[in-house]
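Reply to dn_fold:

You asked what the input looked like. This is it:
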Amino acid sequence: MSALARWIPRLVIATAVLHFCWAFAQPNAWADMAGDGLWRTAADSGAPEYFEREATVWFTASGIALLALGTLSRHVLRTTGRLPAQVGWYLLALGVPLCVIYFPGTGSWALPVIGLLALAAARDGRPARPE
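and this is what came back:
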């Protein structure tokens, strides 16, 4: 298991944590959504605060998805000693379109960078060392 492979899950988890932090630090609509009872609070696209609510939901949802990818890749790495190439491909599939649409206004560039690092780490086929 290479040092790079050990860092990929950490980087993905750190990106997830940043997403959660940003979901609460940016101008968000959590208070409004909670006040409306959360049920269908981001469904009315004509509401004046719709885009704040949508951003709040998507930052949180993508944080959960990144956390799942990071923790699952950490588990697979610890179990098999190898990082699956799929981790890199998934990060590229998420990050490249976001970079094309939003760059440079967001941190979406981090996903393709981590994705490329993950693909490089996945090429390392050495067996795991006991930790």
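The CA atoms of residues 12 and 70 lie 5 Å apart.
Hope that clears it up.
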